[in-house]
């Protein structure tokens, strides 16, 4: 049996992902975006909010790094892209490249998403990007129809404990409208393992009257990562 090597990461990396990646991660449909208030949490330098607004969504993003000067944020994001590319090069035989193609194409996609983000961040400023971090978000109750969290919750399950995750998920649900959904991906840690306390968390959430489902994700890449979590608020 081939040994799975871990993805080494200290601290929380800044993510730079595109609309198409979000569509695949979260099984998003056009009707779930157009005209809908959407929040991307722990969004980093991803271009989802910018691209989704071009499709008619009322999309915004939250991340603690938005308190940084724009130039500093972009410098950090570029450094993270180079760092992650080097790590993936050492581990690339473990990943599924059927979506990204090659490591070079993966890197190019990150840089393209960062550039779209950079332009939008400069144009929109505080209008669409809020400096904020879980488990406390500066938004009204039930403000958004769709709340997304990509590559933060559960991925860092060995850095943030079960209590943090419980409070963070409850906060995402707080800002989500009744009938709306919270979606989280991936459901594996950086060690490619099931996050500690995930089953207990899902049990707690269901006890709140929230429908919690593990549904297929169509973004092949992370070893054994085939589901996203959809929470429907009743």
What labels would you give this structure?
single chain, 234 residues, 7 strands
Helix content: 25-40%
What is the chains' assembly state?
single chain
Radius of gyration: 17 Å
Measured between the Cα atoms of the first and last residue, the distance is: 44 Å
Q: Mean pLDDT across all residues, rounded?
A: 93
Question: What kind of sheet is the major sheet?
Answer: 7 strands, mixed
User: What is the tally of helical segments?
Assistant: 6
Category by helix and strand content: alpha/beta
In spatial order, strands of the major sheet run: 3-2-1-4-5-7-6
Verbal overview:
The chain is an alpha/beta fold and 234 residues long. The chain has 6 helices and 7 strands. The protein has helices at 19-26, 48-54, 70-91, 103-124, 162-174, 198-207; strands spanning 37-41, 58-62, 129-130, 144-150, 176-185, 211-216, 227-232. The chain has a 7-stranded mixed beta sheet with strand order 3-2-1-4-5-7-6. Helix 5 links the parallel strand 4 (144-150) and strand 5 (176-185). Helix 2 crosses helix 4, helix 3 (70-91) runs antiparallel to helix 4 (103-124) and helix 5 packs parallel to helix 6 (198-207). The termini are far apart. The model has no long low-confidence stretch (mean pLDDT 93).
Offer a quick outline of the entry.
Helix content is 35%, strand content 18%.
Write the layout of secondary structure elements.
Layout: H1 19-26, E1 37-41, H2 48-54, E2 58-62, H3 70-91, H4 103-124, E3 129-130, E4 144-150, H5 162-174, E5 176-185, H6 198-207, E6 211-216, E7 227-232
Parallel strand pairs: 1-2, 1-4, 2-3, 4-5
Antiparallel strand pairs: 5-7, 6-7
